[in-house]
Amino acid sequence: MVDTDRGVIGEFRGMVGGKYCLRPIGGGREWEISPQCARLATDRDRANPLLAPRGAYWRDGGSR
Would you put residue 54 in left (φ > 0), alpha (ψ -120 to 50) or beta? Predict the structure, then answer.
């Protein structure tokens, strides 16, 4: 799933209080997003090398 607000791909983990819980691919700290800021990841999204480093940033505990 893509967090369109942050521009990162995350693994859908469930819903809490009407928000989606995503986790970086490969593990890391979960974050919550509103359903309006989410869309399914396409093959093109998953192949985009610009999304991987940002995913690693989140996985390693970064924040914005």
Answer: alpha
Backbone angles phi and psi of 9, in degrees to 5: -95, 140
For the chain, where are the E strands, in sequence order? 2-3, 8-16, 19-24, 31-33, 38-39
60: amino acid identity, one letter? D
Beta-strand pair 31-33/8-16 = unpaired
Q: pLDDT tens digit string along 21-54?
A: 999 888 889 999 999 999 999 988 888 877 754 5
**Structure token pair of residue 48:** 């985009």
